[in-house]
Amino acid sequence: METQTAVLEALSDIVGSAGCLANEADVEPFVTDYRGAYRGKAQVVVMPTTTAQVSQVVAWCHAHGIPMVPQGGNTSLMGGAVPDDSATAVVISLRKMTRVLAVDTINDTMTVQAGVTLSAARTAAENRKRLFPLRIGSEGTCQIGGNLSTNAGGTAVLRYGSMRDLVLGLEVVLPDGRILSSLKGLRKDNTGYDLKQLFVGAEGTLGIITGAVLKLMPQPRSTVTAFVAVPCPASAVKLLNEARMLSGEAVTAFELISAPALDLVLNHLGSVQSPLQGRYDWMVLIELTAGTEEEHLNNSMMELLERGLEHGWVVDGAVAASLADGQLFWRIREEISDAQRYAGGSIKCDISVPISRIAQFIEKASAEVQSLEPAMRMVVYGHIGDGNVHFNPLRPVDQDAREFLARWSKPVSDLVDDLAHAENGSISAEHGIGVAKRDSLEGYKAPVELDLMWQIKRALDPRNLMNPGKLLPLNHRAPPADQ
Ligand code: 2HG
Ligand code: ZN
């Protein structure tokens, strides 16, 4: 094994000394995850600026048997982007690869380096009167490479799909340093295996995404947003169905919010008030967008709410009367995750079930979790238009966060995951697996699926150097010893 000094020297030769960090304080932000739940160690953090540099760095690490941890904006909730504590790994940060290489408004595509932040990508599209539709709360920090590696979802999947649906081409540095490039921007290419999709959602275990061609969409000409109280999740699902019957494609977001989730945000933000006068157990944020005039869309929203009231699926509602209102509704929704971080002691379960089973899942899971500890606050919310629930029980007000997590994290997660699985669901809808869910995965994927996953991993990374210890359950089939 090389000494840290030798690693630093070799990598500095490739990227220059300004592109390498080795002192503890500098390295700290790269080895600690966003929630402070995972803390690892790294020999060196290297920040290449070009694909050629990434390739050389990877080839060198590969030749010297050094584990590599690719990192984007480090906003993973699953510990997928930080190294373990063995102090053997090199973190390869894409943060200096921030160039938007091309925006093609005829092909409706954008070619970017992997370190472009999601908000920079959205702005680059907007500047050319196009929409890049992925929308997640961490857009100012998360990067396109990380969005792809985790197949990020968010609040507009219902309309536009997740990252997997938004990519047309990829450039990837393989674990031995070779470059796989398909930055073509083709909507049709039927020439065999769709290799790029292997790397989407692979969480950096098969290679490092360095560039991508992304789809662009027309910008909507009108948007109508409503914040609506519903009696229960079952009514929310009925309202969703009605919304789609009435306005089809225009339904861009349909987000469920429970009262404890709203309370948490209002507490956290202090000055912000609920858009609704009364206090309700369940709310939904609905967004309709279209290429047509505002009036048409407003009528659709009004008709939806009227029908909802008639059927008893809606009990109260506020329609945004200005851009600022709409922004406030969204701010409340997008702050839920951060508010949980500040409150501490939040158990994260990011599950999905068929939309037809969401209501029964929430009902069962809430009852069973609360029977364990009735004072837990049921912070339940999510993208019900995608069947995706963030089921995140929060510590009772007077319980210490650490003690709460130590006592309840595993039993609650297992219970919730089992219930989702029993409803034909998934234990990770959009946050990925990382380290947090790695070992649970074994209980929910068929052995043949895990066999194939390990076979693909070994085919591409036989020495298990690329983001080792992430995603693939260790017990199912331990990777072979170093070859
Ligand atoms: C969201 O929908 C994100 O806000 C984060 O996926 C969810 O923090 C979470 O559990
Ligand atoms: Zn989410």
UniProtKB/TrEMBL annotation:
One of its GO terms (biological process) is respiratory electron transport chain. Residues 38-219 form the FAD-binding PCMH-type domain. It comes from the Bacteria. Keywords: FAD, Flavoprotein. Gene3D superfamilies: 3.30.465.10, 3.30.70.2190, 3.30.70.2740, Uridine Diphospho-n-acetylenolpyruvylglucosamine Reductase, domain 2, Vanillyl-alcohol Oxidase, Chain A, domain 4. Its cofactor is FAD. SUPFAM superfamilies: FAD-binding/transporter-associated domain-like, FAD-linked oxidases, C-terminal domain. Transmembrane segments: none annotated. One of its GO terms (molecular function) is catalytic activity. The keyword Acetylation does not apply. InterPro entries: FAD-bd_oxidored_4_C, FAD-bd_PCMH, FAD-bd_PCMH-like_sf, FAD-bd_PCMH_sub1, FAD-bd_PCMH_sub2, FAD-linked_Oxase-like_C, FAD-oxidored/transferase_4, Oxid_FAD_bind_N. Belongs to the FAD-binding oxidoreductase/transferase type 4 family. PANTHER family: BLL6224 PROTEIN, D-2-HYDROXYGLUTARATE DEHYDROGENASE, MITOCHONDRIAL. This is FAD/FMN-containing dehydrogenase. It comes from Cupriavidus alkaliphilus.
